[in-house]
Each structure stands twice: as C-alpha cells, then as structure tokens.
Design brief:
The chain is of the alpha/beta class and 359 residues long. It has two domains: 235 residues, Rossmann fold; 86 residues, DNA polymerase, domain 1. 42% of the residues lie in helices and 12% in strands. It contains 16 helices and seven strands. Helix 3 crosses helix 4, helix 9 crosses helix 10 and helix 9 crosses helix 13. The longest helix has 15 residues. The protein binds S-adenosylmethionine.
Amino acid sequence: MDDERDERDAQRAPEERDTADRHLPVLLQRCIDLLAPALTPSETVPVPVLVDCTLGMGGHTEGVLEQLPTARVVGIDRDPQALRLAGERLARFGDRFTPVHAVYDEIGDVVARLGLPGVQGVLMDLGVSSLQLDEADRGFAYAQDAPLDMRMDQTTGITAADVLNTYDERELTRILREYGEERFAGKIARSIVRRRQERPWERTHELADLVRACIPAATRKTGGNPSKRTFQALRIEVNGELEVLERAVPAAIEALAVGGRLVVESYHSLEDRIVKRAITRGTTSSAPPGLPVEPETHKPYLAALTRGAEEADAEELARNPRSASVRLRAAQRLRPTPDHMRTTSTARSASTTRKEDRR
Ligand SMILES: C[S@@+](CC[C@H](N)C(=O)[O-])C[C@H]1O[C@@H](n2cnc3c(N)ncnc32)[C@H](O)[C@@H]1O
C-alpha cells in the first residue's frame, strides 16, 4: 500500500503533491469500503455518482476515483480556494469529477441541476481543512496572527470580528459554552464586550491574549491551548455550521437513490448528535406501537451500516492527529422516505447555489 502511494506521489506534479500533503483524509479506506458497494456499476446504474459534500483538498474524492474506476464524483465546497486546489489535483480524472461551489445543504438543488434523479453515495467530512487552518490570513488559527475572519467562503457572510463587535454578552456566552464547551464562557464574553468599548476587535492575537488572561493559570496547564475552544466556537457560529448541518443531513438522505449510501465524519459532539438523530429517524419504524402488522409506509427507510459511531484506531491516530475526535456513521437507503417522515427543512436551502463550475 505504501509503495503504491509513493509511486503515485512520484507521478504527481509538485503543486499537486503539495495539495495532497496539506490534508490527510481521515479514515479514507473505511469511507471507501463503506461507499464501494453502492458505487459499483450495474445494468440500471452504469455510472454511479458520489456527492462529496466537503471536497476540501479532494483527498477522499481522489481515493474514490482511483479505487472505483467507473464512479463519478460531484465535489461540493463553499470555499472557492479549496475548489481551485482540489480541481487542479483532480484534473487528471477529466469529466469523472465535477466541482461545484455551494453550501452542502443545497445538495438537492445541485443534484437536480446536474440532471441526476438520485445519487448512489454521499460523503460528508465535516469541519475545516488543514489548508484553512494553515492559511495565516484566514483567521482560523489562534497560533498565527491574522484578521478575525474565519469564513469558509470569504466572498459572503459575517466575520468573527463582526460577531465579537456586535453580539451581546449573553449570546457570546451561549456560543462559547455550547459550541466551545468553554467553562469560562461567561468571563470571556464579559471581557470581550468590555474590551470592544475601547476599540473594535480586529486581530486573532488580541483574542488569544484575552482568552489566556481569562483562564486561571492552574487550568491553563491542562487541556491544550486555552484559545482552541473559543476559536472553534466562533468558527461554528460564523459559518452557521450546525444550522446548515441540521438541514443538510436530511437533504443528503433525500438525494440518495434506493440502495445509495451515506457516510458522515463528525468532529464535534453537537455535529454527531445531529447526524445520529437523522439516521435514527430513518432506521426506526414510524408505526404506532401495538399495530398487529407494520404498514409498508411506516417501515424504516434506512439501514445503519455502522454500530453506533466508529472511531479511529491507534494506527490512524498515529498517522493523522486530526482523526482523534472523529465519529463516523453510515447508513443505506432501503426505500423512498414516506411522506409523513419528510422534514420540511429538506426542501429549504440556506442560500442559492453560486458559481457552479461544470466541466
Ligand atoms: C475537513 S475538510 C474536507 C477534507 C476532504 N475530505 C479531503 O480529504 O481533502 C472540510 C471541507 O468542507 C468544506 N465545508 C465545510 N462546511 C461546508 C458547507 N456547509 N458546505 C460546503 N462545504 C463545506 C470546508 O470548506 C472544507 O474545505
């Protein structure tokens, strides 16, 4: 396996190698193995389609295109820079790969616009990519000084500075506590509001300094960098990550043809809870208890492919530190979603699809 990888690396142009090295895909082989049975061609579906909702550096997509030679991938990302770099890396696959600039809760519109009646696989590898963390000017990293931006799509939406300069203390406390699981949320929020009365928030290092000052020295010695939780919370708020995911998982399930498979990798307990809830809804009978025969319309429309959430093993952890918090869940569509189980949010998208780049 490693020899094969070395050989592939040697064949890549230097700039492609750079993209590949910048983000190691988490649980790559497990994701491919879970998706593969649905992405194998058949008489009725000669060209199976995977929607990679979180294209990023294209690591998972590249694995699928290499290992499943008849599959086609539609790669969605809200970050234009990720789309450009992944597009260069995946150019060798020609029209087997279609990049799309969109937010992933728009998956229904994206699939419809490509004229696909349903897709055979959907993959979601949530959160930020190493590229986004590494790019100093994007403001995701507490260790690098930069403007407080944190938008995955820098062409639209509010920045982290906007949040810090305009949200009231209660809202800031809630965000830090819920999304960052920060014990000192109230104290940090109070200090954020007090500090902005002197001058507006602009730079990441100013925020990192303030968080450090709010956390008692004894607590600072454990649990990693104290800014990690505050930066994570702000990033989730700036990008509306949880609201989008609430709409996106049911929309992804709706995009699947019967037999299609969904694989989701979460890195935050609130993300995993949303994914678990949507899958459990589909794997549970909706028949009222006590009926002698379960009506066809109330049978589960999904089958779970993982027992609970899978985590990374020691080998993966040693190779890829990003996998430390991963929770992987997967399910297969058994039948169309009965009308009474459709969520209203499925039909709604956060925003309209922008610049779609079809090749
Ligand atoms: C963890 S990375 C994916 C890495 C990818 N699997 C790989 O192997 O290179 C997550 C990517 O999803 C994108 N993303 C996050 N939330 C998104 C959303 N709501 N809609 C579209 N893209 C999103 C981010 O911009 C980022 O590039």
